[in-house]
Structures are given as C-alpha cells and as structure tokens.
Amino acid sequence: MSRADELFIQNCRDILENGISDEGQNVRPHWEDGTPAHTIKKFCIVNRYDLQKEFPIMTLRRIFYRSAIEEILWIYQKKSNRVADLSTHIWDAWADENGTIGKAYGYQLGVKHHYKEGDFDQVDKVLYDLKNDPASRRIMTNLYNHSELHEMALAPCAYSMTFNVSDNKLNGILNQRSQDMLTANNWNTCQYAALLIMFAKASGLEAGEFVHVIADAHIYDRHVDIVKRLIEKEPLPAPEMVVEDITDFYKFTKNSFTVENYKYHEFDEKIPVAI
To answer: What does the pLDDT read at residue 1?
Structure first.
C-alpha cells in the first residue's frame, strides 16, 4: 500500500468524521457561480514520509507528477511569477493584467538578501549552506512576506521549507497554512518531496524524511461526496521514482523524474474548483 494513500485516507476520514464546518461564516473562497465555498476542516495535520522507502505518490487516482514538479521548478528554479512560464493553466485565474501573480511565490525567492557570506537569494542561500554549513539550524525558505502581501494575487499557501541535515540525510519540513485536500494534497506532497530530492542531490546528500504540516486541512462542501467515493478504493503498491543523477539544482527538469510501474485507479469525476 502506498504511504501517500494510507495517510490521505486517514486524514480525509478524520476530517469527515471529526472536522468542524465553517457553514454560516463569512468565507473568502467561492464557486464559479458565486456561491460561498464552505469547508469541513481539521486544525494541524502532520504527515511524515520516509523518502528512503518510497516516493509519496497517490494510487487512488492518477497524479500528474511532472506537472506538479514543473510548478515547483517554476517557483524555486525559475523564481517566476509569470503564468506564461508554466505549461499548465493552474494559475491563470490569479493572473493580473500583466500576466503575473504579483509579488508572490517565485518572486519572493528571487529577491537577493545580504548575509555575512555575501548576497544570495533564498534558494542560492539554501544551496550554499547545505554545501558549506550543513550543521546549521537556519537553512530555510519563507514566502510569507507580510510587507508585500497586498501585492500578491494570493497569500502563499505552502509558505516555508525548513531543512535539516542529519547523518548525511537531508530532511525537510513544509509548512502550509491552508490546503484543499482533494485537489492539492498529494500534488503538494509530490512536488515538495521532489524539491527535497533535488536539493539533496545538488548538495551531495541523501534524501531523508519529508514532513508536511498543514494548519487548516479542509474538504470543500462540493467535494465531500467525491472524497467519500475516492477513499473507499483499495490502495495499490507504491511505484518507484527514478531521478537522474544531476548535481546542479538548475539543471533539473520535470523530465528528470520518472515513475516506474505506476498503477493507479481510474478517476474521471469532474472536480469543481473553489477560487
């Protein structure tokens, strides 16, 4: 059984059985018809994935992992905020008249800061520290810049990564303020697990444990029945993720990752998206 499936089923059942509804509250998200998009939620879900054992990809339905990885490369490698730099259209609804999402996500990572070692943006500082000061407890990225939130199309959902090297293994914690479990849970898990693997390979380390902390884990009202049907499926064995041996973080592409023997359940239900 895939660990990703096991945790997804466990999390969703917990939300459905023990979660709190925000029905009746004034909520920001809405459906395309203008109706408020209410949720059932749980506070603070923590999932742990050992990347030494398996890559955390769901089999309950197909995950287009290369598209997920392309998005994380758009943020961390291209440090872009232009939706045209992505082949998918997942950010189109948030684009402004200039075709950007404002000073959000990749934009924040590309800003240079001054450190005693020199001037670096956040990504290059992580790469520098992993190679030169792996014992540091200060290796992290943070996208939640309060002074520029008003210039972002959307306040970052997955907003920080904290890295820690132990016994030559690179471990990481992803902090996420909010997550739509159906549409985004395993998408985010796949892309940030891939990010940790890329940082590890670029730093001569092994990928260790990936920990995903979600402050507000929720299922939207129009997703409840879909989720119930999804978690009744029988999980399949986890496939193997093969990653090219690349030592330059900026040389990775979405095609550097290949899932072998990926068996998954067919899933053709249309998922309404809250915006």
So the answer is: 85
CB proximity list for 218: less than 8 A, separation 6 or greater: 15, 19, 39, 40, 41, 42, 178, 179, 180, 181
Token code pair at residue 132: 């030169």
Instruction: Estimate the crossing angle of helix 181-202 against helix 65-76, to 10 degrees.
Output: 60
User: pLDDT tens digits for 215-262?
Assistant: 999 999 999 999 999 999 999 999 999 999 999 999 999 999 999 999
Greatest Cα pair distance, the chain, in angstroms, is 54
The answer to whether residue 12 is catalytic is no
Rounded-to-integer distance, Cα 15 and Cα 105, Å:
28
For residues 168 and 130, the answer to whether their CB atoms sit within 8 Å is no
Residue 72, phi then psi, degrees to nearest 5: -70, -30
C-alpha distances in Å from residue 105, one per residue of 8, 65, 73, 152, 187? 25, 19, 11, 9, 16
Interatomic CA distance for residues 52 and 206, integer angstroms: 8
**With b meaning 16 or more CB within 10 Å and e meaning fewer, what string describes 63-90?**
bebbbbbbbbbbbbbbbbbbbebbeeeb
Active-site residue, selected from the candidate residues 12, 44, 157, 190: 157
Starting at the edge strand found earlier in the chain, the sheet holding 206-220 runs 20-21, 39-50, 206-220, 169-180, 158-166, 139-142
Q: Are residues 118 and 106 in contact, defined by beta-carbon separation less than 8 angstroms? A: no
Of 159, 153, 275, which Cα lies nearest the Cα of 220?
A: 275
Question: CA-CA distance, 75 to 69, in Å (whole number)?
Answer: 10
How many Å from the N-terminal Cα to the C-terminal Cα in the chain?
33
Identify the helix (H) or strand (E) that includes residue 257.
strand 257-260
